[in-house]
Amino acid sequence: MTTSAAGDRTDGRAADGPAAHGAAYDVIVLAGGGARRFGGTDKVLLPVGGRTMLDRVLAACVGAASVTVVGPRRPVDPSLPVRPRWTREDPPGSGPLAAVAAGLGEGRARRGGAGRRHAPA
C-alpha cells in the first residue's frame, strides 16, 4: 500500500469490507473528457444531492477489490471508504477506449482459470 502526502490510502482499495477481503471484481471509472457539451464544466465535480458525481460513484464501489479512476486527479471526500488509484490514458484525452485500456492494467481482483475475466458490457 502507498500513501499520499496527506497520509491517505492510494492503493485503490476500500479501507474495509469485501474489498479488503479478496473481492472478485475491479472498478474502472472513466472521468476524462473535455466536457464540450457542458461548456467545459467538469462533470464529475458537479453536485448531485449535496455530493459530487465522482464521490457518489466512488461510494458505490465499496465492494470492489480495486477502484481506478482514469482521468485528471480531482479532490474526493476523505471520509469515503474507497481510495482510488489514479491513472491517465496515453496520450491524455485520447478517448474512452484508451482510458479503459489504461484502467485494466490497474485491477487487483482474484481471478480463477487461465486468464482474466471481465463482466460483460
Concise account of the structure shown:
The chain is of the alpha/beta class and 121 residues long. The chain has helices at 53-59, 96-104, and strands spanning 26-30, 47-48, 51-52, 66-70, 85-87.
Could you tell me the number of beta strands? 5
Mean pLDDT score, rounded? 78
Helix content: 10-25%
- Which regions have little confidence, pLDDT < 50, spanning 5+ residues? 1-9
Structural class: alpha/beta
User: Which value, in Å, is the CA radius of gyration?
Assistant: 15 Å
Write the element-wise H/E pattern from the N-terminal end onward: EEEHEEH
Query: Which percent range describes the beta-strand content?
Result: 5-15%
Strand order of the largest sheet: 1-4-5
In angstroms, what separates the terminal alpha carbons?
30 Å
Indicate the overall shape.
Answer: flat
Helix count equals 2
Report the sheet with the most strands, covering strand number, pairing sense and barrel closure. Answer: 3 strands, parallel
Overview of the molecule:
This protein is α/β, with parallel strands linked by helices and 121 residues long. Helices cover 13% and strands 14% of the residues. The protein is built from 2 helices and 5 strands; from the N terminus they run E-E-E-H-E-E-H. The chain has helices at residues 53-59, 96-104; strands at residues 26-30, 47-48, 51-52, 66-70, 85-87. The strands form 2 sheets. It has a 3-stranded parallel beta sheet, covered by helices on one side. It has a two-stranded antiparallel sheet with strand order 2-3. Strand 2 and strand 3 (51-52) form a beta hairpin. The longest helix is centred in the last third of the chain and has 9 residues, at 96-104. The radius of gyration is 15 Å and the shape is flat. The N and C termini lie far apart (30 Å). The model is unreliable at 1-9 (pLDDT under 50).
